[in-house]
Amino acid sequence: MKNYHTILNKFILFTGVFILASCSNLEELNKNPNGISTSEANVNLLMPSILRGYALANLNLGYQELAGTVQHTQKDGWWTGHNQYDWGLQDWNGYYTLLRSNRYLGELADKSGSKFHMGVHLAMRGLLFGTVTDLWGDAPYTDALKGDQEGSRFEYPAYDSQEAIYKGVIQDLENASKIFEAGNFVGVLPAYDLYFAGNATKWHQFTNSLLLRYAMRISSKLPDLAKKTIESVYKSGVYFKSASDDLALDYIGASQSDSWPSAADFDQGSNFRRIKPASTLLNKLIKDKDPRLEIWFRPVHCKWVEDNTLTVAVDPFIRKNGVLQTGTRSFSDVRYLTEIGSGAKFTRHYNPKILGRTLDTSRFVGVPTALMEPSEYNLNPTPGQQLENQHVSQLADVYRGKSGGLLKARIISASEVQFILAEAALNGWAAGQAKSNYEQAIKLSLDTWGVGSRYSSFISNADVAYAGTLKQIIEQKWISSWTNAGEAWFDYRRTGFPQLKTGPASPEPVVAVRFTYGNNEINFNAAEVNKAVDKLQVTFGGSRGKNNQWAKPWLLQGTGKPW
């Protein structure tokens, strides 16, 4: 992916010069200084903010709160939103801001006759509106982005049904695919295309891959449209097929805003330290001998040892290479990293007969879902946020960094595409063989994370070898969606896999399935919000009103999924 730092500087400089020039007389002062003139702006300059904006928004979903929802991770500090779906009312302004910029992109593309940019506009329109309806349900669509039309009713846009929006998403992506299929490169400045550097062929593969994603998304409700769309894309042979095709945007690492979200340089590692592997995912990786385990997670700093000869319930202090370190209950994270890096091994003994329970003595330890006090898990001697939990695994050290290597804002991968085709084939659709698609999906995921050489031994594992079930396909897809947990959540909602269980601190006994409509809509477009909310199906969370995160939108109603 392209480095966008220089591009954004140019964009900011251009915008500043344009605004200064526009204020040269009193008539011009009446223009919106924050607007972009569709008569003067260069169409290429609009692409970086849209493409970058979506990539970062998607990563923040997939690495932060939704990673907790699908039990990839749990937090042991500031954990209620992450572990317990305590999301509150959520506005969608960020997505509609991107859609507004994307509207300008489409207008300029139409005016300049640039088919390439029109294709980008349609692809991103489909992806952005698709994400909005994925997360919330019914939303402004047909009437959206028209509030600047004077004297119109669009200041309070009507909501379209989720069904109508998904059909529109499919149509936009199909139209974009046709544009890119023609190989339109005219008018594009490659440096401003942060995704594919002006390569229409790559954009064609991308839009078709998104078509596969959204066709499978609606497969329970609109199976005929889903089948037709997936079979058409598969027949074309144009979609992501290699790990090198994965759409994943690099970070610059120059400041907090353009660095990996848990970069330790910007908060002394506090955010990084809060994020722990969830036992749901970690235990599955251990059971399957998954080679991605040590790419994503780090062994515990201090391993519990069961010792029936101990005369007290637990060692009061840690042991370094077997020697009790009198007076030391725990080291700082930095000290542990230094000592372990020099070859030291730390343990702490306990006697289960005296303690009256067992502790997790594994080398890798995850945090169970929605605990009342997750920082205390596995008898942490330093609960709270001053020190890390030495008896629970952390994320791998790479996730302390600002940029480079695996630190990418991932949007869609070839592995995801192959899992979709495996599911389609399992349904009996013309999409190849389910077994080979499934195996290729796993191979591509291992390639993405740098452990492709271990594929042969991994796929021969009894729990991984193809068994011909939807459960297995979706569980492996859930694992492969690491840092892109939104897709795992959307799959879970429509299939019920993996079979996620909530914990004791969860306000409801089931996993949440949507975002709630936010204050801006409730305050300023209440009539439309109320219509949308009335269409939701409430089984859990009714004490919070119908606009709650457990209320089922159209996509889930009547399916019996995920619960």
How do you describe this structure in short?
Helix content is about 45%, strand content about 5%.
- Termini separation comes to 39 Å
What integer is the average pLDDT?
Answer: 92
Instruction: Tell the overall outline.
Output: globular
Assembly type of the shown chains?
single chain
CATH class of the domain at 5-37 and 91-255: Mainly Alpha
CATH T-level fold name of the domain at 5-37 and 91-255: Serine Threonine Protein Phosphatase 5, Tetratricopeptide repeat
Major sheet: order of its strands? Answer: 8-11-9-10
Q: Percent helix among the residues?
A: 40-55%
Strand content: 5-15%
How are the elements arranged and paired?
Layout: H1 5-22, H2 26-29, H3 47-63, H4 65-69, E1 73-75, H5 80-84, E2 89-90, H6 93-112, H7 115-135, E3 139-140, E4 159-160, H8 162-181, H9 200-217, H10 223-236, E5 247-250, H11 270-274, E6 275-277, H12 279-287, H13 293-296, E7 297-298, E8 302-306, E9 319-320, E10 323-324, H14 333-341, E11 346-350, H15 352-355, E12 394-395, E13 408-412, H16 414-426, H17 434-448, H18 455-459, H19 470-480, H20 485-495, E14 516-517, H21 519-524, H22 526-534
Parallel strand pairs: 2-14, 8-11
Antiparallel strand pairs: 1-6, 3-4, 5-13, 7-12, 9-10, 9-11
Describe the protein's architecture and organization.
- This protein is α+β, with helices and mostly antiparallel strands.
- It has a domain at 5-37 and 91-255: Serine Threonine Protein Phosphatase 5, Tetratricopeptide repeat.
- 43% of the residues lie in helices and 7% in strands.
- It has helices at residues 5-22, 26-29, 47-63, 65-69, 80-84, 93-112, 115-135, 162-181, 200-217, 223-236, 270-274, 279-287, 293-296, 333-341, 352-355, 414-426, 434-448, 455-459, 470-480, 485-495, 519-524, 526-534, and strands at 73-75, 89-90, 139-140, 159-160, 247-250, 275-277, 297-298, 302-306, 319-320, 323-324, 346-350, 394-395, 408-412, 516-517.
- It has a 4-stranded mixed beta sheet. Strands 1-6 form a two-stranded antiparallel sheet.
- Helix 6 runs antiparallel to helix 7 (115-135), helix 7 packs antiparallel against helix 8 (162-181) and helix 7 packs parallel to helix 9 (200-217).
- The longest helix has 21 residues, at 115-135.
- The model is unreliable at 1-36 (pLDDT under 50).
